[in-house]
C-alpha cells in the first residue's frame, strides 16, 4: 500500500528514544522529511543521524519551550504536515506522593506544550487543506494504571481536547487522533521499575509491545489512506484494555 507520505513533512517530539524515535524512523522510511526533538543534545543528534532526520534540541516542559522548536522545524522542513506529539510520561507516584509543583510541571509539559504545538502547526495545515495531528497518550486515559496518578488524571482530559478539536478541523482536511500505547518495551518501563514478566502476564497477548508495532499504527494514521479516521483514541496494547 502506498501511504502517500513521500514529500510530507513531519515533526515528532520526544523522539531521541523509545516510541517517538520508532515513529520518526517509520515516517522517514516512508519518504517523509522528519524533524525530531528531545532535551539531550547528544542523544538527539545521534538519533537524528540514525533516522536521517533533522535534530532539534528542545525542552517542552519549560515555559516558552515550544515556540523556538516550531520556528526551527518550519524553517528547516519548509512546513509541518504531520505533527506527532510525544511528551513522555509524568513521574510515577500515587495521589499522596504528588506535590503541587509536580502537578504544575506535568500540566506544563503534558498539556500546555500539546496545545502550543497544535496551535503553531494547525494554521499551515488548514491553509494547505491537509494535515495529521497525532498525540501519544496512554491506556491510562481509559483505565487508570497503578502509581501513575498524574498520567491517570491528565490523559483523559487530552482526549476530550482532541475530540473537540477534531470536529472543528476535519472540514479542512486535517485529522486529529490520540494513540494509546499499552505496556511497551521501552526505557519508560525500566524507569518506573516495572517487572516485564509480571506485566506481560496481565496482557492477553502475553508479551510486551514492540516500539515498531506502535510506530506502524502511527504511520498509518499519518497517511493519505487514513484521511477518514478522525477524533479517535486508538490503543496499541495487546488487548490490555477491556472497556473499549
General description of the model:
With 244 residues, this protein is α/β, with parallel strands linked by helices. The chain has one domain (9-236): 3-Layer(aba) Sandwich (Rossmann fold), CATH 3.40.50.720. Helices cover 43% and strands 15% of the residues. The chain has eight helices and seven strands. It is globular and about 45 Å long. The chain starts with 8 loop residues before the first strand and ends in an 8-residue tail after the last strand.
Question: How many E-type strands?
Answer: 7
Question: What's the CATH superfamily, by name?
Answer: NAD(P)-binding Rossmann-like Domain
- Which architecture does the CATH hierarchy give at level 2? 3-Layer(aba) Sandwich
- Give the integer mean of the pLDDT values: 93
- Spans where pLDDT lies below 50 across 5 or more residues: none
Number of helices: 8
Strand content: 5-15%
Amino acid at each position: 500500500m502506498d501511504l502517500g507520505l513521500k514529500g510530507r513533512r513531519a515533526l515528532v517530539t520526544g523522539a531521541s528514544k523509545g516510541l517517538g524515535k520508532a515513529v520518526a524512523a517509520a515516517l522517514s522510511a516512508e519518504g517523509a522529511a522528519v524533524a525530531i526533538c528531545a532535551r539531550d543534545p547528544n542523544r538527539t543528534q545521534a538519533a537524528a543521524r540514525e533516522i536521517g532526520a533533522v535534530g532539534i534540541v528542545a525542552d517542552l516542559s519549560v515555559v516558552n519551550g515550544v515556540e523556538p522548536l516550531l520556528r526551527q522545524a518550519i524553517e528547516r522542513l519548509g512546513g509541518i504536515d504531520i505533527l506527532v506529539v510525544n511528551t513522555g510520561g509524568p513521574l510515577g507516584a500515587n495521589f499522596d506522593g504528588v506535590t503541587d509543583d509536580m502537578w504544575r510541571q506535568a500540566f506544563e509539559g503534558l498539556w500546555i506544550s500539546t496545545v502550543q504545538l497544535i496551535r503553531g502547526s494547525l494554521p499551515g495545515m488548514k491553509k494547505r487543506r491537509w494535515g495529521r495531528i497525532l498525540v501519544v497518550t496512554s491506556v491510562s486515559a481509559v483505565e487508570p494504571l497503578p502509581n501513575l496518578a498524574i498520567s491517570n488524571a491528565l490523559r483523559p482530559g487530552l482526549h476530550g481536547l482532541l475530540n473537540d478539536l477534531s470536529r472543528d478541523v476535519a472540514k479542512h482536511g486535517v485529522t486529529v487522533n490520540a494513540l494509546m500505547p499499552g505496556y511497551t518495551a521501552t526505557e519508560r518501563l525500566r524507569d518506573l521499575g516495572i517487572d516485564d514478566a509480571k506485566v506481560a502476564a496481565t496482557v492477553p497477548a502475553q508479551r510486551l509491545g514492540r516500539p515498531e508495532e506502535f510506530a506502524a499504527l502511527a504511520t498509518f494514521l499519518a497517511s493519505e489512506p487514513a484521511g477518514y479516521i478522525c477524533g479517535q483514541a486508538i490503543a496499541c496494547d495487546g488487548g490490555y484494555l477491556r472497556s473499549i
